[in-house]
Amino acid sequence: MNTLITLITAGITFGTVLMYGTLGEILTEKSGNLNLGVEGIMYMGGAFGLAGAFYYEKAVGAAAIGPVAIILAILAAFVAGCAASAIYSFLTITLRTNQNVTGLALSIFGTGVGQFVGELMRVKEGGYVALSNSLKNAFSASVFPGFFVKIPIVGPILFSHTIFFYLAIILAIAMWFYLSKTRSGMYLTAVGESPATSDAAGINITRYKYLATIIGGGISAIGGMVYIVTTAGCVWNHEGLSGVGWLAVALVIFCVWRPLNAIWGSVIFGAMMIMYLRVAIPFIPTQLYKILPYVVTVIVLIITSMRNSRDKQPPASLGLNYFREER
Amino acid sequence: MRGITKRFGQVVANDSISLKLFRGEILALLGENGSGKTTLMNMLSGIYQPDEGEIFKDGAPIYIHSPREAYDYGIGMIHQHYKLIEVFTAAQNIILGLNDGKMDIRAAEKKVKEICDRYGFDIDPSRKVYDMSVSQKQTIEIVKMLYRGADILILDEPTAVLTPQETRKLFTVLKNMKNDGKAIVIITHKLHEVMEVSDKVAVLRKGQYIGTVNTSETDPQALTDMMVGHAVTLNIDRPLYPEPKKKLIVENLTCVDEEGIKKLDGVSFFANTGEILGVAGISGSGQKELLEAMTGLYPVKEGSIRFINGDGNEVELVGMSPKKIRATGVGMAFVPEDRLGMGLVGSMGMSGNMMLRSWKNGKGALLKKKEPEELATRVWKELEVVTPDVNYPVRRLSGGNVQKVLVGREIAIGPEVLLTAYAVRGLDINTSYTIYNLLTEQKMKGVAVIYVGEDLDVLIELCDRILVLCDGKLSGVVDGRSASKEEIGLMMTHIGNKEAADE
Q1: B4 near B40, Cβ under 8 Å?
Q2: Structural domain count of chain A
């Protein structure tokens, strides 16, 4: 029982990182843009998010307070992600480059920029970048009073998490509401399904694509930051983030492009990623555990395409650029 | 519309056309393929702008620059290709792009329901589009226009994709709308539909406005004459082959498409060596399916296609893969209508494209470029293809030259049956003649040539016999030397259902 609870809690911690990455990519893909640069975007989010909190603390010293640090970290990561996906948007939407190639290039580029900024900070600060303990606590503490956390079973599962987890859930619900209940969300879906139809209906395709891709990138980047300030313990760690972005891309498929599915999907994926630490079976190598999420994604892909449910397909124009003249 | 002219480059698609449309009336716009019907209506719906002429509505001149402005003037056009989002419901599709404050899908569904009840449409506004049949999709498009308050509706060949029952339903709805005071234009080339549904008929021919008549005062014969016009002499050389023999026998061929609509229905004919068998018909009457069935590309539901080889033995082709059809020794060369899509690889040069046909003959892993290059050079020289060299990407060649490469390659195999579809589409006069001569040359070598064409003048002058298709059915086979254009025109529209002349 205890093992299960720790597994779920750990799954949620890691899953929160994935949730941001996935939600951002869902928004992006809904507009028909397949941004494979999530990996790079999350790296940049991690490095810039940490930098935001770190330099804030350096500037104000002991006067630094948790909430401000959290907001600054989120903002820094978000802006970095927006900038990275703005490059992608400009290349694919305006210059109409191939989306796959551009996304892969952005992955490499973003990873490089993230590493560079992280390492630069580390070297400049004398080999070690870390936040003070009080800020670390602010990042990793539960938002609920200790009383709630102490409730058996329910407490650790529901109330023991950082503010980022609850924010991600609010974000997922907000995105679900936006996509299925608002006019603008319906138009965004229309753009991703059939740009030609939307264009004929008088919807500004370019605007929707740019906004969805840029904001989506910003949201994904927050995931990278969350990893650094929670799992990595507010220390720049250039290895832990590798592969997380790809996992988020796989999760988008797993969630069949629905934000609400991202909540439980991320937790399951998070738990699968962390399983090798918690329920290790001696003779199975840890690498085998780590491929589990991908195996599950492949299975989900096969099942959804076999069932041929039209509601569970990717946006019809995903990965295709729109040329108005080519009607 | 007064004095409307539209040019595309040098081609005049509409030549000073004037047209009047009244409320509470259905006007049929009749004409052959390429006579400018759709172009004319596209100017009314804001897709094109006229080069000359003016459009008036209720006495005032209007200028329509985009489909959106056309909506504002109450003009809605339903195209042949529906613009719908498959994963949305009917109601969602209908309100897409409208900005009328808060999105209220319930209210929209209610309003859609009202429109449906008023005119007798039958759709469920909350159903997803991917679950709907073609006719329901069409209904959504019409309701979309009505929802936006259109009082002039233009339908571009609305019945082309419908079953007869659905067509009847559509006509009932159209008549309801007419009685409600809407003006309706229906673009079509099916005469019996014109007679059934319209009040007036306006006829176009090759971009010219021929005239408008009241449907009640005319008959199909008179309309055909207006539509087809008088025969033009082209002077295509048509020598007679000494001893034609049966080469290909098609019996009771029936093909059904994915949606269960019969594309070919019990078609039987034969093709002789040393003759050009023309295939005439309004586009979409089953020509494409016929050719593809013969080459093994289209599934055949019933019937047989038999090829008679050199020894006089019959070989059944139905059920064989295209590769096997070739392996049995059946020489079929297929010149598809979509030249660059199905025929050639655009970014490869002439020799590369020649190789596509012969790569199976090669042995080993490496390409043997010599033979295809020689062949390409031969085609280049003999057919006077205008290209800098044989490795120049064919995509950059002009349409006529692309066609020469394709025909040249197919002829080079030495086929016994040569199938061509719209071989001269988009080509200038001179190149067209080159192609005609090539085909005639093949015919004189004893090849059975099947030529699917759209220009009746050419068919009459080029072909020895002409097979006429209408709606997937064979309406008859006529002798190219004695047939008149009017006769074929009538057969194309399925009146005067004449039995095959020589069977």
Answers
A1: yes
A2: 1
Residue to mutate among A178, A183, A187, with most B CBs inside 10 A, is: A183
Residue A91 maps to which CATH number?
1.10.3470
Prediction pTM value: 0.72
Instruction: Decide if A273 is inside a domain.
Output: yes
- Pseudo-torsion of CA B451, B455, B456, B459, nearest 10°? -30
Residues of chain A in contact with residue B128, where contact means CB-CB under 8 angstroms, are: 310-311
Q: Which residue has the tokens 């006719």?
A: B135
Distance CA A33, CA B306 (A): 50
Q: Are the beta carbons of B96 and A194 separated by less than 8 Å?
A: no
In percent, how much of chain B has pLDDT > 70? 83
User: Least CB-CB distance to B87: which of A187, A201, A311?
Assistant: A311
Q: Is residue A281 part of a domain?
A: yes
Asked if the structure places residue A147 within a domain, the reply is yes
Higher pLDDT, B281 or A109: A109
Q: Which residues of chain A have pLDDT under 50?
A: 327
State the ipTM, two decimals. 0.78
CB–CB contact B130 A310 (8 Å) = yes
Q: What's the N-to-C CA distance of chain A in angstroms?
A: 60
| pLDDT greater than 70 at residue B295 | yes
pLDDT, tens digit, for every residue of B56-114? 887 788 888 877 788 888 888 888 778 888 888 888 888 887 766 667 788 888 888 88
CA distance B92 to chain A (A): 8
Residue of B nearest to A181 (CA): B103
Which of A190, A198, A200 is opposite residue B67, by nearest beta carbon? A200
A252: region left, alpha or beta (phi > 0 left; psi from -120 to 50 alpha): alpha
* Closest CA–CA distance from residue A137 to any residue of chain B (Å): 44
Chain B contact residues (CB < 8 Å to A): 67-68, 83-88, 92, 96-97, 102-103, 128, 130-131
Type of residue numbered B225:
D
Q: Decide: B115 and B192 in contact? Cβ < 8 Å.
A: no
Cβ B250 vs Cβ B305: under 8 Å: yes
Distance CA(B318)–CA(A98), nearest Å, equals 42
CA atoms within 13 A on the CB side of A30: 30
User: C-alpha distances in angstroms, B86 versus A30, A311, A322, B91, B440?
Assistant: 15, 9, 18, 12, 48
Distance CA A222, CA A231 (A): 14
**In B, which residues are within 8 Å of A194 by CB distance?**
83-86
| pLDDT, average across residues B233-261 | 76
Which residues from A are below 8 Å from B102, CB to CB? 183
The answer to whether A203 contacts B96, with C-beta atoms less than 8 Å apart, is yes
B86 closest CB neighbour out of A196, A198, A310: A310
Question: Which chain B residue lies closest to A205 (C-alpha atoms)?
Answer: B97
Give me the residue from B83, B97, B128 closest to A196, CB to CB.
Answer: B83
Burial of B43 (0-12, 13-18, 19+ CB in 10 A): buried
Please tell me which of the candidates A182, A201, A316 has its beta carbon nearest to residue B97.
A201
Query: Does the distance separating the beta carbons of B88 and A189 come in below 8 Å?
Result: yes
For residue A7, give its domain range: 2-312
The CATH fold of domain B234-331+414-503 = Rossmann fold (3.40.50)
Q: Which of A187, A143, A147 is nearest to A164 (CA)?
A: A143
* Residue ranges covered by each domain of chain B: 2-228, 234-331+414-503, 347-413
Helix (H) or strand (E) run with residue B316 in it: strand B314-316
B183: left (phi over 0), alpha (psi -120 to 50) or beta: beta
Q: Is residue A215 in some structural domain?
A: yes
What share of chain B in percent tops pLDDT 90? 0
Q: What residues pair up with B250 in beta bridges, in sequence order?
A: B269, B305
What CATH number should be reported for the domain whose range is B2-228? 3.40.50.300
Alpha carbon B156 to its chain centroid, in Å, reads: 13
